Amino acid sequence: MSKRALIVVLVLVASGLWLRWYLSPEQVIRRSFMGAVEAFEGERLLAVMSVFDRGYRDSWGHDSEALGGIFAAAFDELDDVDVEVIELEVTVDGESARTSLRFVVSGAADGADGLLFGEPSRPCTATLEWAKRPQGWRITTTSRLDIPELRDELDAARAGSPDLAADRGPGG
């Protein structure tokens, strides 16, 4: 085999390996999630909501429509939002996946700038459950959420809400 043919083969193999990695469910979910974070920072509600399944339900009593309302209210109240994702772990098991993340949210609210939720030494944490749908990977529920500044409110809402995630039935 000539040197030129060997180089072509190596480039094709390397390109194939890179494409396999790039199109892996883990990387697709990671890019989708980070795209939603960028959309949240840019206050683009439809882009944020595009990663959530229409059947989204969580144990705080929220469905996808309620979640959209929460995000819209946040966009009205907050300015110059920056979400720093400190850690994002993606685990895929067939047609389902889980993302575990640690994050800090900064921006402006009520005329003051700075950290809004979490801090580097005490970040917010969340675990999101995903499912493979015909249109792509979608978030079906938030199984864990801890925002230090809202911990009491989140705990009270979870305690007073039926476990809607258990009532979703087949297919979300």
Walk me through the structure:
- Helix content is 38%, strand content 33%.
- It is of the alpha+beta class.
- A hairpin with a 2-residue loop joins strand 2 and strand 3.
- The longest helix is centred in the N-terminal third of the chain and has 20 residues, at 3-22.
- Mean pLDDT is 89; it is low at 164-172.
Briefly summarize what is shown.
This protein has 172 residues and is an alpha+beta fold.
CATH class value: Alpha Beta
**Beta-strand percent range:** 25-35%
- C-alpha end-to-end distance: 54 Å
What is the CATH architecture descriptor?
Roll
Tell me the helix content. Answer: 25-40%
Biggest sheet overview: 5 strands, antiparallel
Q: What is the β-strand count? A: 5
What CATH calls the topology is Nuclear Transport Factor 2, Chain: A
Shape annotation: elongated
Uncertain regions spanning at least 5 consecutive residues: 164-172
Radius of gyration: 19 Å
Structural class: alpha+beta
Q: Name the helix and strand elements from N-terminus to C-terminus, one letter apiece.
A: HHHHEEEEEH
Mean pLDDT: 89
Count helical runs.
5
Which secondary structure elements does this structure contain, and how are they paired or packed?
Blueprint: H1 3-22, H2 25-41, H3 45-49, H4 64-77, E1 78-93, E2 96-109, E3 112-117, E4 124-133, E5 136-146, H5 151-160
